[in-house]
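Researcher: We're teaching a course module on how sequence relates to structure. For the next exercise, students receive a sequence and then see the predicted structure as tokens, so they can try to spot secondary structure elements on their own. Here is the exercise chain.
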Amino acid sequence: ARHALVTSAVTCLLPVVVVGGLVTAFQRVDRATDRRSDKLAQRTALCALAYPGWRVLQVVERVAPYWLGGHVLGFMSFFVWLRYTNSDLLRSDAELVARDRAAAAAAAPRDGG
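Model: And here is the predicted structure for the students to work with:
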């Protein structure tokens, strides 16, 4: 039970921190930099931080060895649910815009003339 709890906590928290936190931080720094030299420094620092990140993942693998499998299963079930419910997330923007325009045209009052 302890391993299942640890694995599920890591499966949930690691993507939230990595994807949510790091992507948000990257976007804020990226938007704040204008010059090519600043962007080069930013990307160089990002590459330099990749190695310590790899070391952290090795520790995570020792603590919760099945976290990646749980994450993959979670994504698979999420996309199966999206497909089952025929979600708009799986549709192209052009299709959604066309559908919205058709609905707006149908709802518009017509001239009786």
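Model: If you want an answer key for the exercise: The longest helix spans residues 2-32. The mean pLDDT is 83.
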